[in-house]
Write a structure and sequence with these properties.
about 280 residues, alpha+beta, Jelly Rolls, Arc Repressor Mutant, subunit A, 2 domains, six-stranded antiparallel beta sheet, three-stranded antiparallel beta sheet, globular, AraC-bd, transcription, HTH_AraC, DNA-binding, AraC-type DNA-binding protein
């Protein structure tokens, strides 16, 4: 992702903030090392996530998993873009996960979003008013008082529980107005499921029954990435996650589809500014 900047920063377990911007300049495709949740409140905005474009309406909830390529597109530059945003570290959610019970996995909402729709809508009148809870969480996060940090963390956990309950209880509905090319989505799914394998443009085009020239052009238009660039970036992001486990580094190199360690190490250092062994030590 050397051509596309890693945006945002997160030095704590989570951040919550409210933004209202006018006359924003175009935002390029980018990614984060953390998960992001957006409660959309107002504006004229389309949101592009991994090749799918969603037209947003107030009370839409946008889920962006760490490493997903995305950007907002402003369809009316004079309209204010208002939203509440949460950044959350994947490791923080993992600490609350009970491996024996999937119903305690607070990151389940991101898994659900990837499999169904990255944007969900909650109408008023449901049992868990997520806008109310998110607004209360944002105000508390910027408040003062006794044990405010602990109180904010408790409220954040409560919000994540209610968010996941809303999904389990079918109170959030996926958007059916997403615009995408089925052939590109098919190619994206295949790439992400076969990162350890040889992935040539000729093979990908043949699988999608389209010409490689159309595939290259449309892939770039929909995702902001060339095919080789996308594959390399996804392999390195997977490698970064595997480095947090005890898997041997040489095995990680093979697992993410690099033919030799030296090539893997150079690519990893170019993207993350440190060698794989140094990243593991950190």
């Amino acid at each position: 992702m050397s051509d596309y900047e890693k945006k945002g920063y997160l030095v704590s377990d989570f951040r919550v903030f409210r933004l209202k911007d006018a006359a924003l300049k175009p935002i390029p495709f980018h990614y984060h090392d953390f998960h992001k949740i957006i409660m959309f409140l107002g504006g004229a905005v389309d949101y592009v996530i991994e090749g799918k474009t969603y037209h947003l309406a107030p009370r839409d909830i946008v889920f962006v998993t760490a490493g997903e390529i995305h950007r907002p597109v402003f369809t009316d530059e004079l309209s204010d873009y208002e939203r509440i945003v949460i950044y959350v570290a994947p490791e923080f959610l993992q600490r609350w996960q009970n491996q024996d019970n999937e119903h305690t996995d607070l990151a389940q909402c991101f898994t659900y979003a990837r499999e169904h729709s990255s944007v969900m809508h909650q109408p008023p009148g449901t049992s868990h008013d997520l806008l109310f809870h998110m607004d209360k969480l944002e105000k508390t996060a910027h408040g003062q008082g006794f044990a405010n940090g602990l109180f904010t963390e408790i409220m954040f956990i409560e919000f994540m529980i209610l968010l996941n309950r809303s999904l389990y209880e079918h109170e959030l509905s996926g958007l059916n107005n997403a615009i995408y090319d089925p052939k590109i989505q098919e190619t994206l799914s295949y790439i992400n499921a076969h990162l350890a394998e040889e992935l040539s443009i000729d093979e990908l085009a043949a699988r999608a029954y389209i010409s490689k020239f159309y595939l290259m052009r449309k892939f770039k238009a929909d995702t902001g990435y060339g095919i080789h660039q996308y594959i390399r970036s996804k392999r390195l992001l997977l490698a970064r996650d595997l480095l947090k486990t005890d898997m041997p580094i040489t095995s990680i190199c093979e697992e993410v589809g690099f033919a030799d360690y030296s090539t893997f190490s150079r690519a990893f250092k170019e993207m993350f500014k440190c060698a794989p062994r140094d990243y593991r030590k950190q």
